[in-house]
Design brief:
With 333 residues, the protein is α/β, with parallel strands linked by helices. The protein has a single domain (5-332), classed as Glycerol-3-phosphate (1)-acyltransferase. Helices cover 56% and strands 11% of the residues. The chain has 13 helices and six strands. It has helices at residues 5-28, 30-43, 50-78, 88-113, 121-126, 146-152, 170-178, 189-199, 220-233, 235-241, 253-261, 281-287, 310-332, and strands at 132-136, 157-163, 182-184, 207-211, 266-273, 295-301. Strands 3-2-4-1-5-6 form a six-stranded mixed β-sheet, sandwiched between helices.
Length: 333
Amino acid sequence: MNESRSARWSRRAKTIPVMLAATAGAVLFAPVILPVSVAVDLLSGRRRFPLVRVYLFLLQYMVNDSVEILLAPLMWAQAGFGTRLQSPVSIDRHQRLQAWSIRLLEQRAEQLLGLRYTLTDADQAALEPGPVIVISRHASLFDASLPGLIYQKIGYKIQGIVMAELLADPGFDILYGRLGSVFIPRDDGETARATVRAMTAGADERTMYGIFPEGRLFHPTVRDKALARLAHSNPTRSERLQSLTGVLPPRPGGLLTLLAELPTADVVVVRHRGLDGLSGLGRLVKVVPKQEPLTVSVQRIPRHQIPDDPDEQIRWLDELWLTIDQDLTRTRK
């Protein structure tokens, strides 16, 4: 996203104090909040204490975010007061902080929320080599980190195409921005495409570019509105995608830009089941800790199987999304 330095720091002057204050408050009042949460769980007949679990996970997230915020100026100073932020040493330093944060949140998600998964040997083999474009459907706040988590474990540089709304998270904003992820406006296509083009300049064999083509979390109401808009702007695509039930119509702009800028990169599809609907506190409290492991699989699509023509690429993406939706429908039966 094209943003002036003054605008960036004007935003951070608000988001950073809010996050640090919220974290301090959550830690200081934990001796009060935890007993109250235990009591609420017991009075509600919830013997596995889901409210306590969700609170502890959110607390860990806030602590991680605050650590990232507090270490950011130190790493900026170590990088020649910002003059060498993109040097290999600085990038390695930031990547180690990112890896620490991701691993710790994964551990807490498994311990507290019951969110766990495994990949088969075939899935692992499909991840490499890079550079690679990684796409996935977007059903919850947790699946947003899944592709990055998978690739961080095998030592890849993670560069995501992220909606600008996540700039409200200051730790994510600073750390991921320094590591090459980009934050794009939802309804300014040309600015978004220019930003995506710029991010691919440093592509190498250990880089993954992650994008969620739907652009936002799935909800039936959002799907219906998206299909209605598509009926006006592109009746052919609308008719083709009318049968979608569990995913949103994909927005092809970002992915097509990546395909154009990375002409040799394969596409990896991360499929998952078990994370649907985990996007609000009320829903989380109802379902955690989850007893069954998540189902995660990896499909690698060689580049020669993807059309070169942009219109055909859109058709290919639509047909892929229809297949993902059909798979979800079959598993629900």
